[in-house]
Each structure stands twice: as structure tokens, then as C-alpha cells.
Specification:
The chain is α+β, with helices and mostly antiparallel strands. The protein has seven helices and five strands; from the N terminus they run αββαααβββααα. Helices cover 43% and strands 22% of the residues. Helix 6 packs antiparallel against helix 7. The longest helix is centred in the last third of the chain and has 21 residues.
């Protein structure tokens, strides 16, 4: 698979690459940008990969909670968002936002998403370790709202679903406005 050339606005936004997941097979296919950054080998692009290989560069401290969240969304379907650290070949820590959507049971078998480099948001002049900074409070709120939305979906309460979706939309608007252009 050759390097996907993203439109300039997407490259400027930090898009690293894309993924497609076959939920039933438990395998993900990465484009070459995602394969290089996440699995450590662009040569794995286009090949069905296990979660362990597809996310081989995930930071050890983030690995467990990210895998747990991915496995839960693979079972239930719906939107997926997680921001975590990865280690590059040189050992440098980078932050990655993984966003996508997986099909709900009975809706199909393939989910799709992107990886976006968000390292610039985590760099702090006062931090001794530029690879680690406290997560943004609105991003933490978004993660909690996504988890709440998954629980509300299972409850079957349409008004609660509408309210949590409105909250997620508003948090997303605030996060987008704060990103550097």
C-alpha cells in the first residue's frame, strides 16, 4: 500500500492515518501512515492485524485501558474516541487521538476511523517530561460522556440519549475552537 496523500487541511490537522476494523474477525487494517506510527512498520499496511500488532507502539501505561475500551466498543458498536501515548522508534513520546465508529450488532462488520497526532497540545514549557502532561479537562469530560452515552444506549432512554449527544456536541465544539489553526 502506498502512502496515502491527505488533503493539506487534514495534514495540517495532524492526521497520521486511517484504520478499518473487521469486528467479527477481530482484525484491523491500517494505511501506511497508521501502520508506521502505530505498529512501527509501514510494511504492515493493508494487512489484517491483531490489536496487539496494530497498536504495538502504544505506551505501556496506556495500553490496558485503551485495549479495554476498544474491546468494549467492538462488542457494543458505536463511536470510539481515545487519546493516548505512543513511543516512536527513537523512544520519543507522542500523543495520538483515535476516533472512529464501529457497527452496532446487526449493522455490519466493519468500523472505520483515524489517528491524529495531538502531541502539540500536550507539550508544556513547565513540564520536565515533554511527553507527558495532564490531559485537558474537556477531553477527559468527553471521554466520560462517551462512556455515559454507551450506558445510556443500553438503557433505551431516548431523552437521555438526546441530552448526552447534545453535551458531546457542545464539548466537541469547544475543543475544536481551541485547536490552533
Amino acid at each position: 500500500m502506498t502512502r496515502r496523500s491527505f488533503p493539506l487541511p487534514l495534514e495540517a490537522a495532524g492526521v497520521i492515518g486511517t484504520w478499518t476494523t473487521d469486528v467479527l474477525a477481530g482484525r484491523s487494517v491500517l494505511d501506511d501512515g497508521a501502520a508506521a506510527a502505530m505498529a512501527g512498520d509501514a510494511g504492515l499496511a493493508g494487512k489484517p492485524l491483531s490489536l496487539d500488532i496494530a497498536l504495538g507502539r502504544i505506551h505501556p501505561e496506556d495500553r490496558s485501558w485503551v485495549f479495554d475500551r476498544i474491546l468494549r466498543v467492538r462488542e457494543e458498536g458505536g463511536p470510539f474516541t481515545a487519546e493516548f501515548r505512543i513511543r516512536g522508534e527513537d523512544g520519543a513520546v507522542r500523543w495520538v487521538l483515535n476516533q472512529g465508529r464501529l457497527p452496532r450488532p446487526g449493522e455490519g462488520r466493519h468500523g472505520h476511523g483515524t489517528y491524529i497526532d495531538t502531541t502539540h497540545r500536550h507539550l508544556s514549557e513547565s513540564s520536565h517530561d515533554p511527553g507527558w502532561a495532564e490531559p485537558d479537562v474537556l477531553e477527559v469530560a468527553a471521554d466520560h460522556c462517551i462512556a455515559a452515552r454507551e450506558a445510556i444506549d443500553r438503557s433505551g432512554r431516548p431523552l437521555l440519549r438526546l441530552l448526552i449527544d447534545a453535551l458531546l456536541l457542545e464539548i466537541g465544539r469547544h475543543l475544536v475552537r481551541r485547536r490552533p489553526h
